[in-house]
Write a structure and sequence with these properties.
By secondary structure, the chain is α+β, with helices and mostly antiparallel strands. The protein contains five helices and ten strands. A hairpin with a 5-residue loop joins strand 9 and strand 10.
């Protein structure tokens, strides 16, 4: 069952990457980016959700910051903790530049992921991370906006359940424009390189 879930997540991510890169491969000039360039292929960052302190926030709350948007859930057994640990190392590599970055962890399991639960989860990984939740309709609308996908799996005997979800990391510039797409399998050097470019720092 676990292998099936991992394979399904991989397929979801590959379909998303393929759909976004079809037009990108026709660029005439070499790209400075090492990650998938989605500029012009995704809408600006827009949402109204509740953060992990129980406050209503919008995309404007994070204007001026480079945003890394990720859809996951706190009971995730594998992909989410791996991704959050990966991003923590990226933040460490950025040094002081990380103060201008926010990791927005949007729960696809709002029934279990209360603000308090999210707060304990995201802050255990990195101080630049913010947990976000909302109504099921709000979450579904946001995932559709960025072509992400998630599915609640059948419940287990003990009442628990898993949620299969795509694992893309959507990177927006400080103006809320969609710029890059990454995954936890991308080498750290590539992620750090491109974030430094977005932040106006030395990419080396």
């Amino acid at each position: 069952m676990k292998l099936l879930r991992v394979a399904r997540l991989a397929c979801l991510s590959m379909v998303l990457l393929a759909s976004l890169l079809i037009t990108a491969c026709h660029q005439d000039q070499p790209s400075p980016w090492q990650l998938a360039d989605i500029s012009g292929h995704m809408p600006d960052l827009t949402f109204q959700l509740t953060d992990d302190l129980g406050k209503t926030v919008t995309a404007d709350t994070y204007r001026g910051k480079v945003v890394l948007l990720y859809f996951g859930y706190t009971h995730c057994p594998d992909v989410c903790p791996l991704t959050m640990a990966h991003l923590h190392v990226v933040m460490q590599r950025l040094g002081k530049l990380a103060d201008n970055v926010r990791i927005l962890f949007v729960s696809v399991d709002p029934a279990r992921d209360t603000p308090a639960v999210l707060h304990g989860y995201v802050t255990a990984f990195d101080p630049h991370a913010v947990g976000l939740t909302g109504s099921p309709s709000d979450i579904e609308a946001l995932t559709k906006r960025y072509r992400a996908a998630f599915t609640r799996e059948p419940g287990k005997a003990d009442g628990s359940y898993d949620v299969s979800h795509s694992s893309g990391i959507y990177i927006f510039d400080s103006h809320g424009k969609a710029r890059l797409l990454a995954t936890s399998s991308d080498p750290l050097d590539k992620v750090v390189h491109d974030l430094r470019l977005l932040l106006g720092g030395d990419a080396t």
